[in-house]
Specification:
85 residues, mainly alpha, two-stranded antiparallel sheet, 9% strand
C-alpha cells in the first residue's frame, strides 16, 4: 500500500462517506469526523474477513457465500477473496 498525504474525494467516494457517516453517527444530530468513519469502515472490513475465515470450519460454503459482499467473500472452499484489487 502506498502512503498518500491527501485523499481525493470523488462524487462516489463522497456518497459512500455520507452513507457510512449515517451508520456510524450516534443519532441524527451527530456528525463524526471523517477519520472516525474511515476507522469504522476499516475495522468492519478486517472483522468481516476474520469472521469468514472462522466460519469456514463451521459452515458449508453455500451458507457462507450468502454473506459475500462486493468487497470480500468466500470462493468455493479454497480462498477468501477481495474484488478491490
Amino acid at each position: 500500500m502506498s502512503r498518500r498525504t491527501s485523499l481525493k474525494i470523488t462524487d462516489e467516494r463522497e456518497r459512500q462517506l455520507e452513507k457510512a457517516n449515517e451508520i456510524v453517527a450516534s443519532g441524527p444530530d451527530d456528525d463524526p469526523p471523517m477519520s472516525v468513519v474511515i476507522d469504522a469502515a476499516l475495522a468492519h472490513l478486517i472483522q468481516s474477513e476474520e469472521n469468514i475465515q472462522q466460519a469456514r470450519s463451521d459452515l458449508d460454503p453455500k451458507t457462507i457465500q450468502q454473506f459475500n459482499t462486493e468487497v470480500i467473500g468466500l470462493r468455493y472452499r479454497t480462498e477468501v477473496w477481495s474484488r478491490w484489487r
